[in-house]
Amino acid sequence: MMKASLLVIALLAVGNIGADAAFSAPASAIAGSSPPALAVLLPGEVDVDGAYASSSFPIRPDLLLNRAREILSPEIEIGTKDGGACLSSEFEFVAAVVGPINREAYLDALNSFKLRDSFDIEQNYFGFTVDPLQTNRVWFFTRQVARHVAPFMGANPDKTKDGGVLTLPPQLMHMDFDPDGLVREFGFYTVDRRQGNTGGLGGAFGYFYGVGRPLPIPECRPYSPSFRFRTLNFIGKIGKMLSKKTK
Predict the structure, then answer these.
(1) 44 is a domain residue
(2) Which domain holds residue 143?
(3) Phi-psi region of 77 (alpha: psi -120 to 50; beta: other; left: phi over 0)
(4) Is 23 strand, coil or helix?
(5) Segment 149-185, tens digit of pLDDT
(6) Whole-angstrom distance, CA of residue 177 vs CA of residue 69
(7) Rounded distance, CA 119 to CA 134, Å?
(8) pTM (2 d.p.)
(9) 229 in a domain, yes or no?
(10) What are the CA-CA distances from residue 76 to residues 57, 72, 92, 182 (Å)?
(11) Is 9 a residue whose pLDDT tops 70?
């Protein structure tokens, strides 16, 4: 349980279009004179309205988006302010390198560790959408910016780089709901590790690294290609050079 809680803490922190496929945008859309009267779908693009209309999930997409925003609000904060009342009994937390973690472990970890005690955090949420292929899921982005205002993991604000301001990389989050509007799953994934000043790390991993206190595991440090991957790249480059010489 202790190990699982620590990992939760650390985190809480195409199909190809064929050559013969044709698509042409309306001239009015290209010229910018006026929007097209009807939406034109790309080959392979999901008919979102049609998917929503045929969905058997009982909560309408617009109401589900409102519910997601409610759960993210300061009054609830994904179960941290309401004692977990917004979470299903089957709730799981899951992310790229950790999970799934059950409801009890998730709440236990959050009750013992609060980033907001040490940081003034701007979540910068945007891009809320209901997945047309899984209509109980809401996707959304966050681009967190956090000012270090109090000691954290033994690190003082005046020692944090960039004036004590941490800029995390963009993160894609999701919530899965049950028919009663309770959160069944919550998780996130870093989607652009080249941005920000936390070594491409998201969640609390980014905070640990940003203040110079990364946990002593590979997942809490910036991405580094493995020896095997570097070797394969090297072999590939040698092969490319040799093929050029034989032409």
Answers:
(1) no
(2) 2-11+50-242
(3) left
(4) coil
(5) 999 988 999 989 899 999 999 999 999 999 999 999 9
(6) 13
(7) 35
(8) 0.77
(9) yes
(10) 24, 6, 17, 12
(11) no
Provide the mean pLDDT of the chain.
83
Specify whether the CB–CB gap between 107 and 4 falls below 8 A. Answer: no
Are 11 and 96 in contact, with CB atoms under 8 Å apart?
no
pLDDT-derived band at 121, boundaries 50, 70, 90: very high
Q: How many domains does the chain have?
A: 1
Cα 64 to Cα 129: distance, rounded to the nearest angstrom? 9
| CATH code for the domain in which residue 183 is found | 3.10.450.50
The label of the residue with tokens 């580094």 reads 224
> Roughly what angle, to the nearest 10 degrees, separates helices 103-112 and 2-11?
70
Amino acid in the structure at residue 129: T
Q: 35-46: per-residue pLDDT in tens?
A: 555 678 899 999
Q: What are phi and psi of 27, to 5 degrees?
A: -60, -35
